[in-house]
Amino acid sequence: MPLIGYARVSTVGQDLALQLDALQGAGATRIFDDHGVSGSKTERPGLTEALRFLREGDTLIVWKLDRLGRSMTHLLQTVADLEKRGVGFRSLTENIDTTTPTGRLVFHIFGALGEFERDLIRERTNAGLVAAAARGRKGGRPPVVTPERIARARQLIASGLTVREAAARVKIGKTALYEALKEKTNVAGSTG
């Protein structure tokens, strides 16, 4: 079962030596890496290349879980994708190996905890929105296109400014102002 390694450091000045030594010591026959790439970045050419290289029966190994995933959700998704392809996953520091029954169990527990955490966040957010609504507050950003700004923009346009110039003066996007003016005209036209 070929072991394929992946290593990553976040800043250019950091050194991969510790990770590379650990991956080679674990038996990695080929190692892909990313230098100066934050874990939060979606563009990781070394990881993309490693994932393309992997074949059924291979095992992807990393020094530590946080080297692979941008977040718990991303990590779980990546390992689930590997599992569907018949590729194992090992993390040396956390001693997780999905090629063993115990390793799969531990990783699925991680997945369940990640999902539980997302559900809790969703519940707290919804409860907060309901509580705010009960106090008469509405969530979200305050509207940019207010009746006062539309009235001021109309005055500016009437005085000779273009819609673009008026939008800039009242700090509204020109498209939003066009829509608001059109909407107002349609409402006025339909009532009279």
Automatic annotation (TrEMBL):
PROSITE patterns to which the protein is assigned, alphabetical: RECOMBINASES_1, RECOMBINASES_2, RECOMBINASES_3
Q: What CDD domains would the database entry show?
A: HTH_Hin_like, SR_ResInv
Q: Which Gene3D superfamilies match?
A: Homeodomain-like, Resolvase, N-terminal catalytic domain
The entry's keywords? DNA integration, DNA invertase, DNA recombination, DNA-binding
Where does the source fall among the domains of life?
Bacteria
Kindly list the biological process annotations in GO that this record carries. Answer: DNA integration
InterPro entries cross-referenced by the UniProt entry? Homeodomain-like_sf (IPR009057), Recombinase_CS (IPR006118), Resolv_N (IPR006119), Resolvase-like_N_sf (IPR036162), Resolvase_HTH_dom (IPR006120), SSR_resolvase (IPR050639)
Where would I find the Resolvase/invertase-type recombinase catalytic domain in this sequence? 2-136
> Which SMART domains does this UniProt record tie to the protein?
Resolvase
- Which GO molecular function terms does the record list? DNA binding; DNA strand exchange activity
Q: What positions does UniProt annotate as the active site of this protein?
A: S10 (o-(5'-phospho-dna)-serine intermediate)
The UniProt entry's sequence similarity note says:
Belongs to the site-specific recombinase resolvase family.
Protein's UniProt name: Recombinase family protein
The protein's organism comes out as Paracoccus aurantiacus
